[in-house]
Amino acid sequence: MIQRIRSALLLFLPVLVLAGWLWVESRTLPASSPAAIPASSGNWGLSFQQEGQAPVGNAAAEELAQYDAYFLGDTSRKVLYLTFDCGYENGYTEPILDALKKHSAPAAFFVVGNLVETAPDIVRRMAEEGHIVGNHTYHHPDMPSISSQAAFQKELDSLAELYQQTTGQPLSRFYRPPQGKYSEENLRQAQALGYKTVFWSLAYVDWYTDNQPTPEQAYAKLLPRIHNGAIVLLHSTSKTNAEILDDLLTKWEEMGYTFASLEEL
Length: 265
What we know:
Number of helices: 9
Strand content: 15-25%
Largest sheet: 5 strands, parallel
Shape: globular
Radius of gyration: 18 Å
Number of strands: 12
Order of helices and strands: HEEEHEEHEHHEHEEHEHEHE
Structural class: alpha/beta
């Protein structure tokens, strides 16, 4: 019975998930659509059904929680959890850190091996200013294609060891799957290593460095879709993010939101 249900749901997943990356940009599902699709495998995806309300993920928050995985925080409070994926440094991470410092806003930076190797001072600054530095794997591979626990662990341990050598501190036990690609087995593997897997409930197309959105385009996605308990994903390589972050945080504050650490999850 379970297998038949999963087979049927696999046919439904592409409706919610863009094949290449991230989330459904504009699709609105009917009220009768399921609010929970089992965390089997695929790309993390979201469906925004009502402005100002939390989206529906392609796995329910309750189901993810059994694996210590999350895409939403406390939806009873006007609180936001800021997170950044950091693949490499191209001049925009420090302005982002400056804006966070100005607003006393904690954030989580999910880093890969390349960033720690090539920009150690910036990584140390993240830690020194009280931000979480999370595990985005060493090589940024397609993690669902890794079948063994040993190989999965090596990707995370290699980054943790490099971070320890670079900063003298242990890496936090927060993990974000590269490209949002995951499987149920990956969730179990991360949990077995003591990690919390962190997806997101708000993001926008900010990662094409040669085709950056205008500030107006960014605000059009990030303001109406903000919601209580949002885990916000931004990329530190985005010129637009670096330019608007101070003003964006101000706008969210004016809407009544505060910023919290993933530790509160």
